[in-house]
Amino acid sequence: KQAEKAVHQKKEQSKTKCRKARRRHVNLVVEFNRRQGKNIWLETHIWHAKRFHMVKKWGYCLGDSPTQKCYRACYRAMTNHCLLQDLSYYCCLELTGKENELLKQLARICSTDTGLTFEELCCLSGRFEGSLNLYRADRYPEDMLGPVTFIWKPRDGSENRQLWIWMHPALKQDILRELKAIFQCSEPEEAYIPEPVTTSVQEEKQMDVVLSLGKKRKKEDKEGERAVPVKKIIGDGTRDPFQSYAWISQTTGIVISDKTMEILRYRLIGPLSHSVLTETLKAASLQTV
Known about the structure:
Elements: H1 2-9, H2 19-22, H3 25-35, E1 40-41, H4 45-49, E2 52-57, E3 60-66, H5 71-80, E4 83-86, E5 91-98, H6 99-106, H7 121-124, E6 130-135, E7 144-152, E8 160-167, H8 172-183, E9 187-188, H9 201-212, E10 245-248, E11 255-258, E12 266-269, H10 273-280
Organism: Chionis minor
GO biological process, one term: tRNA 5'-leader removal
Domain Pop1 N-terminal: 4-97
């Protein structure tokens, strides 16, 4: 009886890990993914969470107002220097297909009376970004969907073109439904998943030696196996990072893909924005095979 009593009196082992274990990269990614069950984080979420009051809107966790009095600093940056804003929560829809077919159907949801259209020469070449208001098909000036911005991929000599349309997340479902209707895209396209590259045993050993130089050894788990890296949430958090929402039309061949949170978008404001870009981005050398 005394032995049984001692067994029941033993304290249960604490399930909470120590702070050092919680702060490991793999455990941090698992915790961050768990906290993004309902609201997705932007790439700059950690930076904003330390300096802004966060709000939950449109399925995202966004910075609303700063915790410190930095309005004057932001104003000086906009007027004299450069200010960067993260607009990655804006939704992006990609249209792929023949240029004539794209322009023919897109003309039904916009009008020249409101300004630029998708057929504008400066925008059609892919050099400039355009903005316009979308309406339901053949319903102008009634049933307005909302304002969007768009940019064409420059021509590469083929008939197929790519068009990216950016919109506010509150307008995404209505605009996507209208685009699927005018292009008759109802069947989902099979997403391509790249196969893992196989390497020989010698190459793997050489890679392990190179990666281990100048780095600390990773701690192994209780079973003596390396910790498996956890995938980071991309998109809406319910699909694999290599898959995307895509619909194809069997009659026109147009493909509509949802690239939300797969293409980051930043806005630079200020007179030094161009100089900041030229100092940050370096042109790559073209290599012809």
